[in-house]
Design a protein that fits this description.
About 40% of the residues lie in helices and about 20% in strands. It has 9 helices and 11 strands. The longest helix has 25 residues. This is Transcriptional regulator, LysR family. It comes from Desulfohalobium retbaense (strain ATCC 49708 / DSM 5692 / JCM 16813 / HR100).
Length: about 300
């Protein structure tokens, strides 16, 4: 017997792929990774028990069942959007100040805000892009209401959201990894958990290294890498299209996962802040290639050790 409850996100992924004829273009439109969109379509196909799309190396086309399901899926999404727009006009209003590092903002913000804006059109958001180590005191001082940060492994605070895999990257047209000692572009010491994990991995592997660029801003690091001068570390999901992942095949050690957390002074103090916090938790725990776990940790109001991106 077929499951009568179908997640609208699965329908949206299917409709977008069907309309654009490409998982890549659908992923761009939905602000998701291609693998995430593909997984959503597979889940819908598994739920219906049959293939909806015929995949080939050149194109994606509808199966006979897909052609039958498509108009129903479009109708369901239109009805849902109309309902949300109607209800949202009478809902919560206010202003929420949200902070997160630049690289997280570029990847996570579009997917978080796209549906939130439909649900809560009367909530105004102010975005602050800073390093995680700067965002935490901003939350505790009341300068901002929420922050998505990298949690320090030795002193994690905030509510756990997901894990992200760290990867070595260099410019796609360069071979900086072949230089000895390995040239690195990193945040200054004490600014970034990524730096700590990268240098620890290199030391444990006995790989010689040298830092040729230290920058307090992500733009400086990415410019150095894009010039082909250095290697750096990012999370897999925030990889720039102009960079490529390198690793053990190029003689570099494996890197660990890092944890992403959500910081807020507390729950129940402001309704607009609470609904955005809940939306971020739900959105990021089910998006992309990150690893999320269902446990909910208590929020901490104590500052933790410095961290970076």
């Amino acid at each position: 017997m077929l499951d009568k409850d179908i997640d609208s996100q699965l329908l949206r992924a299917f409709v977008t792929v069907a309309e654009l004829g490409s998982f890549t273009r659908a992923a761009t439109k939905l602000y998701r990774t291609q693998s995430a969109v593909s997984m959503q379509v597979r889940r819908l196909e598994q739920q219906l028990g049959k293939k909806l799309l015929a995949r080939s190396s050149r194109q994606v086309t509808l199966t006979s069942l897909g052609e039958m399901v498509l108009p129903y899926a479009r109708r369901i999404l239109r009805i849902q959007e109309a309902m949300l727009n109607e209800v949202g006009q009478e809902q919560i209003s206010g202003k929420v100040r949200l902070g997160m590092p630049d690289d997280y903002a570029a990847y996570f913000l579009p997917q978080v805000l796209s549906h939130f804006g439909l649900l809560y059109p009367n909530i105004q958001m102010e975005i602050f892009c800073e390093l995680s180590r700067n965002l935490e005191p901003m939350v505790h001082s009341g300068e901002i209401d929420l922050a998505v940060v990298t949690r320090h492994p030795e002193n994690a605070s905030g509510r756990f959201v997901r894990r992200e895999q760290l990867v070595w990257v260099e410019d796609a047209q360069a071979f900086a990894h072949e230089q000895q000692p390995l040239p690195l572009a990193l945040f200054p010491e004490g600014y970034c958990a990524f730096r700590l994990q990268a240098l620890k991995a290199l030391e444990n592997a006995g790989t010689p290294w040298r830092i040729i660029c230290e920058s307090r801003g992500l733009a400086g690091i990415r410019a150095t890498v894009s010039a082909g001068l250095a290697v750096t570390v990012v999370t897999r999901n925030t990889l720039s299209p102009t960079m490529r992942i390198i690793g053990p095949e190029q003689g570099l050690p494996d890197l660990p996962e890092i944890e992403i957390g959500l910081l807020t002074p507390g729950w129940g103090e402001d309704e607009a802040t609470d609904v955005l916090a809940s939306h971020i938790l739900e959105s990021l725990r089910h998006e992309g290639n990150g690893t999320a776990t269902p446990e909910v940790e208590p929020l901490s109001n104590e500052p933790s050790a410095p961290r970076g991106m």
